Amino acid sequence: MKLLLDSTRCQGYGLCQEPAPELIDLDEWGYAQVRATEVPPGAEDAAEAAVAACPNSALRLVK
């Protein structure tokens, strides 16, 4: 499973990092940065929660 970010849709709310701090960092302005596109085993639920938390659909999962 891959976690992909469309940085043009990110508005810097930072809501995606709360459920998945091990997968997503925020830059100094609050914009998301995916640490690694491959979601490690056991982090699938956190990745799905991060995608669901994004109000602008900037994140998506590809299986």
Automatic annotation (TrEMBL):
Database matches in Pfam families: Fer4_15
Lineage: Bacteria, Bacillati, Actinomycetota, Actinomycetes, Kitasatosporales
Matches recorded under Gene3D superfamilies: 3.30.70.20
Cofactor (UniProt): [3Fe-4S] cluster
Record InterPro entries: Fe-S_cluster_ET
UniProt name for this protein: Ferredoxin
Keyword Nucleotide-binding: no
Alphabetically ordered keywords of this record: 3Fe-4S, Electron transport, Iron, Iron-sulfur, Metal-binding, Transport
Cell wall biogenesis/degradation is among the record's keywords: no
PANTHER family: FERREDOXIN
